[in-house]
Amino acid sequence: MADLDHSSDDSSLDSREGSSQDSKLExxxxxxxxxxRMFNLVGERWSLIAGRIPGRxxxxxxxxxxxRYSSSE
Length: 73
Fold this sequence. Notes:
Layout: H1 2-24, H2 29-42, H3 46-50, H4 58-69
Keywords: Developmental protein, DNA-binding, Nucleus, Transcription, Transcription regulation
Subcellular location: Nucleus
GO molecular function, one term: transcription cis-regulatory region binding
């Protein structure tokens, strides 16, 4: 029974994450500046950059960066 409860928690977490994920891609000007500076210093070490921004995950930082600065070289 514990497995069933756990899986229902996972599905509720996934649906909540999906609905709030788009809004979390809105970064403040300070966050954008920090991401840019950190990227110039450490490159694509997203977890290191995310560690400097409370409430942000490495995946959010990487998704933001690639959606904003990806180049088609």
